[in-house]
Amino acid sequence: MTDSFDTEKSRASAWFRNLRDDIVAAFEALEQDHSEGPLSEAAAGAFEVSETQRTSEDGSDAGGGLMSVMRGGRVFEKVGVNISTVYGTLGERAQMAMAARKGIPGMKEDPRFWASGISLVAHMQNPHAPAVHMNTRMFWTPHAWWFGGGSDLNPCLEYDEDTAHFHATQQEHLDPHGAALYPRLKEWADEYFYIPHRNRARGVGGIFMDDHCTGDWEVDFSLTQDIGRAFLPAYVPLVRKRRAQEWSEQDKEHSCAPPLRRIQPCSRPGTKFRLETGQHDANAVLMSLPPLAKWI
């Protein structure tokens, strides 16, 4: 059994909010200082921010968050950066979903839960600039707690040096937690983001973990923070390098065509679980859908 974890919950929620603020500021800066190359004469994009709220079946407060979405920028075609802190009681279907994933005893007797996290998906105007996905999260019940998340790169047009930079930056941030960690989380991402019916990976990989609990909350929280800290230095230099590169309509068509070059969220177990448990606003969960995709 865990205690109420009030201090730990507050620290985790505040961290996800701070990370969100840093990412939103960095992405708006990429829009503002895009001074040459395709679409540099267009208006700079900015995030539209809206609050999300949940209510329990009895109408009581159940938490919420912020949904920040930019559409039609000169660098970002569509990007969403969402945070949430939600809580309440898991319904019967959600308890079954939890039991199927975790095998936690006692959920029926005390089905309280708390969850907080950040989720990000970016689709780019320039097909030479890679799309990206990132999320980190903490989940608590009276019976267990754990962290999860990671980030993965999804280029339309692949560059080996970009892939190398993305992975090297993540490894740099993870190595202080043990030399074996990065290879394990990289392999986990390769498996998690593999698309069986396409017989290919979704992108060029990254890092991923789920249900992560060593029993030492401080150690696990520190790792989760470093996964978040790795994101901007791993990704922003790639956007700065590629956003001014000339591209053709054929390049853009390539970015919308199969095999699944656009990030698709709905088949992932984590997405299904969040919808099943009612943890988040459905619009926020599905904000990763691209503005345009084609099957040709």
Draw up the topology in text.
Blueprint: H1 6-32, E1 48-55, E2 61-71, E3 76-89, H2 92-102, E4 112-124, E5 131-141, E6 144-154, H3 160-174, H4 181-192, E7 194-195, E8 200-201, E9 205-212, H5 217-242, H6 249-256, H7 269-277, H8 282-285
Antiparallel strand pairs: 1-2, 2-3, 3-4, 4-5, 5-6, 6-9, 7-8
How does this structure look, described?
The protein has helices spanning 6-32, 92-102, 160-174, 181-192, 217-242, 249-256, 269-277, 282-285, and strands at residues 48-55, 61-71, 76-89, 112-124, 131-141, 144-154, 194-195, 200-201, 205-212. It has 296 residues and is α+β, with helices and mostly antiparallel strands. Helix 1 runs parallel beside helix 5 and helix 3 (160-174) runs antiparallel to helix 5. The chain starts with 5 loop residues before the first helix and ends in an 11-residue tail after the last helix. The mean pLDDT is 87.
